[in-house]
Amino acid sequence: MPRTPTPPENAVTLSFHVRYAETDAMRVAHHANYFVWFEMGRAAYCRERGIDYAAMETERGLFLPIVEAHCRYVSPARYDDLLTLAVWCKEATRRTLRFGYLLKREETLLAEGETYQILVDNAGRPCTLPPDLAEKMGG
Amino acid sequence: MPRTPTPPENAVTLSFHVRYAETDAMRVAHHANYFVWFEMGRAAYCRERGIDYAAMETERGLFLPIVEAHCRYVSPARYDDLLTLAVWCKEATRRTLRFGYLLKREETLLAEGETYQILVDNAGRPCTLPPDLAEKMGG
Amino acid sequence: MPRTPTPPENAVTLSFHVRYAETDAMRVAHHANYFVWFEMGRAAYCRERGIDYAAMETERGLFLPIVEAHCRYVSPARYDDLLTLAVWCKEATRRTLRFGYLLKREETLLAEGETYQILVDNAGRPCTLPPDLAEKMGG
Amino acid sequence: MPRTPTPPENAVTLSFHVRYAETDAMRVAHHANYFVWFEMGRAAYCRERGIDYAAMETERGLFLPIVEAHCRYVSPARYDDLLTLAVWCKEATRRTLRFGYLLKREETLLAEGETYQILVDNAGRPCTLPPDLAEKMGG
User: How many CB atoms lie within 10 A of CB A134?
Assistant: First the structure.
């Protein structure tokens, strides 16, 4: 049996309950929601690092759209399960960010994922992360 | 047994299949999605009347946020059910719109709903529907 | 200006951040999500009262589908806003439950809502709440 | 500039409008919804091939959970955009299915994706696709 992967030490973790609306007729959490949870994980990651992502959008006009997303589903999650998500920055350049994710229920691995984002401005043009944000984001 | 209500003659109807992601662990469509379907119904209503709602937002800076929403759920919808939604304008003023909805699967009534919207500008201030749109919207 | 309504003393409250996926092109939380939040509030209410709603479904075959839902939207919520939802049981019979909701961001009222649920068994037939659950639910 | 990929001849296509609820604060369709659209594409694929997926679940107790999902986002989709999704079976074994997806708005490529599913029974145990379904699914 494969060993459950361990997130790196600089990972940020958050815990949450599976919502009823997130389940589907298989009585498990619908697979599309994992990407919503990953995003919630990135929000927690930013908060922990002192990055105000909302202000980054509204005040600086900087956005981080997803250009690639991947998830491997290992074991299902059910209604009201208390899940723990670990999120970490796998790679940061001045123009791109790659995050990794591990989702568990206690010691059971439920899923692992990865997203790749690019930085764009208000007009959707690729741009460069200001130094203060780059340091906080990737560190 | 109560008679199934009939939408008024000027109602616009659209048909769609229940998506798997819209079901929940009760194996029926989750109740929050009905409001998403109502919104999809308003889009069909606008299209039918020659109103380009997307352009109304992006070109004229006019928005129609929901200020009140109500739904009565009569019978559940299941995965892949082919549903028919009737949408009509119950009341139109220069600043507000009230829509009614009837959702059926063939002749079975599944739900009836109502939404109330106000017109606001880019800054969220209440404003007045231009005459060309008012006529198309409420007629 | 109307006074902000106050939830009753026996209300259960929970706090959460608005998710990015919950926003829409008006840059505010989409109105359908409020019903998902209300449901999350009922889950917190059950947890607080020692009711295991998941087990109620899977072990006792009892379900509480929504038969009526209403929301009045007062002020918009934005991405990452920290919201507080108060949930309370307005009325409990052996076969029905009516919950009330107040949603705030700090002292600002964002929305108030109400849902009406009936108790059904695995086959969707109306049934009666067992005394142990009835007491915990409505008390 | 890379040539837009072309779906294979046996692909099934469907068209749909982007719903308002599917947009987010970047004013584009939220990336998690693409997986919901892919699923809607698989439903269309099954329908076209004479497979009643709903009955497969409810009558035969066969389920096709996603074990891996991937999407590459090329260009954003906006509210009310009319999109065309092509879906095809890339690989079918008696126990697994791999689907490919291409999403376009007219001739513009918006995204390409892939999902990998395994067949399980009511108890979540891997099982084997009955011959009649295998032929229709992979052909």
Answer: 17
